[in-house]
Write a structure and sequence with these properties.
The chain is 72% helix and 0% strand. With 328 residues, it is mainly alpha-helical. The chain has a domain at 101-316. The radius of gyration is 57 Å and the shape is rod-shaped.
């Protein structure tokens, strides 16, 4: 019997098996019916022979490792995505500004620090003047009221000098007595005028001494806000220069410098407002004390005028008595 002829029968035995395997695999790949079916595994001997006849090829090179993405200290990937920091790594934190008054003073520009220090000294001087002058005026007014009561109680200048030997009222009485001692036998009108001028000088000197240091309050009250404004302008200018150098307009970077500059204006107002109020209060107290001085000077002049009139009457009476005796 003649068997079925196959083209692979014309080849030797081993190549014949390989050819059959190739024809079988080509038929399976072209047939749509067998496309969805699993390809049967060839016999073990056929697979070993195909592996032996396959040409040896060089091993495929291992894939190169992908480069790690570059990162910066901000914790962001090159694409703009935020990455979590690796375990064990520390992200440097931005320096935090101390926004308390002392912290802002220590962090301010040296010029602004100088302005703040000057205004703080002015504020301390204001409250010191208030304490010192208030006590001095209270004591002076109390003594003057007591002296006025004693001067009113006597009837002559010599008795007043004994009752009030010291103080501003005592100085007024001493000035009137000195003028009488320097003008023996002179007309009474001239003595009164000269005594009034001397008492006026003493009154003005005493009032000036009572108003001492109040001019400092006026200076602080009028110039304090402008000195603070100078510190603010300088601080803001310095802050803008820092913004230009850092090339950032972030509010967290700009705000501390501006706050330090504005602190100078705040301290200027804190120093100026109490100074103005205290100046007005002390001015009223000095005016009240001057009124008491004027009352004391008026009482001294009254006693002086009375003593001059008594002296004139006493000198006139002996002359009249002599004329009466001569007439008899």
């Amino acid at each position: 019997m003649i068997g079925q002829f196959h083209p692979a029968d014309m080849l030797p035995r081993r190549p014949r098996r390989i050819a059959r395997l190739v024809v079988l695999m080509a038929g399976l790949s072209l047939s749509p019916a067998h496309a969805q079916q699993a390809v049967p595994e060839p016999p073990a001997s056929t697979a070993q022979e195909a592996q032996a006849l396959a040409p040896t090829s060089a091993p495929a090179p291992a894939p190169a490792p992908a480069p790690a993405p570059r990162s910066d200290l901000s914790g962001q990937a090159p694409g703009g995505e935020t990455r979590a920091p690796a375990a064990g790594s520390e992200v440097p934190s931005k320096p935090r500004h101390d926004l308390s008054p002392i912290g802002m003073f220590l962090g301010a520009d040296p010029v602004v620090q100088g302005v703040m220090t000057l205004l703080a000294i002015a504020s301390v001087a204001t409250w010191t003047i208030l304490l010192v002058r208030s006590i001095a005026l209270w004591v002076a007014k109390r003594r003057m009221r007591r002296a006025l009561a004693e001067i009113r109680a006597v009837t002559s200048l010599s008795a007043a000098s004994v009752a009030v030997p010291r103080g501003a009222a005592g100085a007024l009485i001493a000035a009137a007595e000195e003028e009488i001692a320097r003008s023996p036998g002179l007309p009474a009108e001239g003595i009164r005028e000269r005594a009034q001028a001397a008492l006026g000088r003493l009154e003005a000197a005493e009032a000036k001494r009572a108003a001492a240091q109040t001019g400092i309050l006026a200076t602080i009250g009028s110039t304090g806000p402008f000195v603070g404004l100078f510190g603010t302008v300088w601080g803001i200018m310095h802050s803008f220069i820092g913004i230009a150098e850092s090339h950032t307009t972030n509010l967290a970077v700009v705000a501390p410098g501006i706050a330090e500059a504005l602190l100078a204006t705040g301290i200027g107002l804190v120093a100026a407002i109490p100074a103005v109020v205290i100046y007005n209060a002390l001015t009223r107290a000095v005016a009240s004390y001057r009124a008491l001085l004027a009352d004391a000077a008026t009482l001294v002049l009254c006693h002086l005028s009375r003593d001059l009139d008594v002296r004139a009457v006493g000198a006139h009476r002996p002359r009249q008595a002599g004329l009466h005796v001569a007439a008899e």
